Amino acid sequence: MEFPLLKDIFVIFGLAVAVALVCHRLRIPPVVGLIITGVIAGPHGLGLSSEPDAVAKLAEIGIIFLLFTIGLEFSVESIRHVKRLFFVGGPMQVFFTAGAVFLLALAFGADPATAVLIGLIASLSSTAIVLKLLQDRAELVSAHGKGTMAILIFQDIAFVPMMLLIPLLAGGSGASIWRDVGILVVKAVVIWLVIGIAAPRLVPMILTHIARTQSNELFLLSIGVLCFAVAWLTSLAGLSLALGAFLAGLILSDSEHSHRTLENVLPFRDVFSSFFFVSMGMLLDFGYVATHLTWVLGATLVVILLKAAITTGVSLGMGLPYRISALTGLGLAQTGEFSLLLLMAGYHEGLVAEDGYQFILAACLFSMTAAPFLVSAGHRITDLAVRSPMPTRMREGRYFVSADADARMRDHIVIVGYGVIGAMVGHSARLCDIPYEAIELNFDMVRKQRDRGVPIFYGDATQEASLIKANIRTARVLVVAIPDSLGTQRVVGLARRLNPLVEIVARTRYIRDMARLYALGANDIVSEEVEASIKIFSTVLEKYGVAPDVIEGFGGVPHRPHAVRQQRRDDT
User: Fold this and answer.
1) Which positions ≥6 away from 553 have C-beta within 8 Å?
2) Which residue in 104, 282, 520, 555 has a CA-CA distance of 20 to 30 Å to 487?
């Protein structure tokens, strides 16, 4: 007996693998490859899918898993270190972007309700794409990576009330809207009482009993029951499945079972959410796009430029340096998966006609496809822009205080980045009566350490003014302790140009970055991969009774030719 859906799954996954391999070679995120797969396999492409409605149903399951994992990963701790960007920068970015696009939509003839929808769609960015790009580039813990994630987390949370707003936008005017708002508030209160207060106490207790059975199958089934039950209950209340899935994840986010739950759910999320992105590509009418290509590309470009400019401006307003602000703006310049969900909801509510739906969908997908190229070119773009004339407070950040170098400070240490590593270096220097200056981009950290008497100031060490303020020209040693690989390379190259004699000790995570840092002028490099591997194999050999001097002989990892290292020391 023929099973059409099974054939569709086979065709979609087979095509997705082929497209994903091509995208991998081109360094394009898999999410973009899934969208392209949908365009090719959809009814407007080659028509390879005979059950598009069934694929759409699988996509809804993907949405549930996607929101469930976002709820699981959300916690107060995740925003504590970027709370200013989350609580102030995130709302400002969403509000200003939505407002600007709303006014543009009105100017082009959209009615107010549709214009609000378009503004909300444009205000969101792609967590899936941006997170993957930052992870691949090892920039998730960089200054701009943290800022980008703070705003993305706020957008993910803001998506929930946006979805609740869609029926109100389509519901008419006057008393009916106020009645709907009142009903919505009552529903929200009831759901919060049932799910937000009772469930966090009851569900973890039940899962604890289930976990004691040591049956992974039973635990996984219990998680599935929780996720789909809460999503189903919220849909019965007239709210979205996505909201219910998010709340289900939120119930477990601070429990002892959150990590195990996430490990079990991630494979299902990746499989089913792939159907979501494929289904979005299937909805795109390529014939319509070809006919209106100029307008679609124009709209895509406007959205990208507008979002990049607004997000950059918001980050500058929060006091971040221009380079960090611009990288954050370019990282968030696209629309996202939740934009597509808002568009679908608005289309089903009649807020967008078929032509408008295809136009907005195409612009969203085009901007998401452009995201990898914008992020890859981000550092080159910001390097060019930062060379243009601009105020020092804009280039270095609002909290940077200009000052001439102290001529009395000589033979000191300049510490770039005052996290765990930088603080340990500073503390050791203080115990040995060695003078030092520290540069840090986290203003809260600067204020806290300054109150403790630490010689630290706010600044971006990739810019000349900050290094000069730290007296790099008379320093004996520079310690680069930031987790940003590209930022580290910029600091090393700039410091070597400003002071050819300074001894540069740089931190890097990966072995692959060491050759580049040596070429830029670093004297010594501490690689986390190398140090961890040495510690591990030394411990293992100790367990087998290998003599310490033999183990020490194995520890000499040749990071670069000895002659090159000796030549640099002779030159300096």
Assistant:
1) none
2) 555
Q: What is the pLDDT of residues 288-344, one digit of tens each?
A: 888 999 999 999 999 999 999 999 999 998 888 888 999 999 999 999 888 988 998
Give the Cα separation of 458 and 474 in Å (integer).
20
**Helix, strand, coil proportions of the chain in percent (round to 5)?**
70, 5, 25
- Amino acid at the residue 472: I
Measured between alpha carbons, how far is 242 from 245 in angstroms, rounded to an integer? 5
What is the secondary structure of 271-286 as a DSSP string? Answer: HHHHHHHHHHHHH--H
**Whole-prediction pTM:** 0.77
Where helices occur in 349-501 by DSSP H, the ranges are 354-386, 392-396, 420-431, 443-451, 464-469, 485-498
In terms of DSSP bridges, do strands 477-480 and 503-508 run parallel, antiparallel, or are they unpaired? parallel
CB atoms within 10 A of CB 528: 13
For 4-386, CATH number?
1.20.1530.20
With tokens 């190259």, the residue in question is: 493
- What single-letter amino acid sits at 326? A
Residue 27 and residue 25: Cα distance in Å, rounded?
A: 5
Superfamily, domain 404-571: NAD(P)-binding Rossmann-like Domain (3.40.50.720)
Whether the CB-CB separation of 445 and 422 falls below 8 Å is answered with no
Interacting residues of 318 by C-beta distance below 8 A, sequence separation 6+: 84, 85, 88, 89, 398
278-300 tens-digit pLDDT: 887 888 888 888 899 999 999 99
Q: How many CB atoms lie within 10 A of CB 478?
A: 27
- Domain boundaries in the chain? 4-386, 404-571
Q: What are phi and psi of 438, to 5 degrees?
A: -120, 140
Cβ neighbours of 131 (radius 10 Å): 16
Q: Are strands 503-508 and 456-458 parallel, antiparallel or unpaired?
A: unpaired
Please state at what angle helix 258-283 crosses helix 216-236, rounded to 10 degrees.
50
Distance of alpha carbon 175 from the chain centroid: 41
Q: Using CA atoms, how far apart are residues 326 and 409, in angstroms rounded to an integer?
A: 33
Q: How many CA atoms lie within 13 A of 132 on its CB side?
A: 15
